[in-house]
Amino acid sequence: MGIPSYLVVSTLKAVLAQRLARRLCKKCKKEREPLPEEIEVFKENNMEIPKGVKFYTPVGCDECNDTGYKGRVGIHELLIMTPSLKKFALKEYASDPLTEQARKEGMRTIIQDGLEKILMGITTVREVLGGGEIKPKE
Ligand SMILES: [Zn+2]
């Protein structure tokens, strides 16, 4: 933008990223077991699916206009500019290395926040990761 990077870095306190995911309809959501590839995604993001936790599939009812979803839920990633990240940002200009460094320093990623909301039964794997809806086995 033509602004010297030290000016941006010295005044920047935090960066908040937000995405909205559809919220599962409480009335008709249906329990299912997590799939092996989903368990893999949690592992890749340094998270675990606690024993006994169910995933949900949207079904559809009168309450939700047959969509299986009702309302939205925000998923977030908050990058706080710590002194060490400021130092880092002054050396590296691309945003990738900065968020990478923030992750190393313990920042929870937007995917991790989304996965957490899957574990809480609030939203679905599809809403967080994209791809097709997973149907429960009958
Ligand atoms: Zn419903």
What this model shows, in words?
- With 138 residues, this protein is an alpha+beta fold.
- It has a single domain, classed as 3-Layer(aba) Sandwich (Rossmann fold), CATH 3.40.50.300.
- The chain is 36% helix and 21% strand.
- The chain is built from six helices and four strands, in the order H-E-E-H-E-E-H-H-H-H.
- The strands form two sheets. The chain has a two-stranded antiparallel sheet with strand order 1-4.
- The structure holds zinc ion.
- Zinc ion (ZN) binds next to loops.
Q: Report the count of strand segments.
A: 4
Write the element-wise H/E pattern from the N-terminal end onward.
HEEHEEHHHH
Taking all Cα atoms into account, the compactness measure Rg is 19 Å
> How much of the sequence is in beta strands?
15-25%
Short description:
36% of the residues lie in helices and 21% in strands. It is an alpha+beta fold and 138 residues long. Bound molecules: zinc ion.
Topology:
Elements: H1 5-11, E1 14-24, E2 30-32, H2 36-44, E3 55-57, E4 69-80, H3 83-91, H4 95-104, H5 110-119, H6 125-129
Antiparallel strand pairs: 1-4, 2-3
The protein binds zinc ion.
Zinc ion binds at residues 25, 27-28, 60-61, 63-64, 68.
Features:
138 residues; alpha+beta; Rossmann fold; two-stranded antiparallel ribbon; 21% strand; binds zinc ion
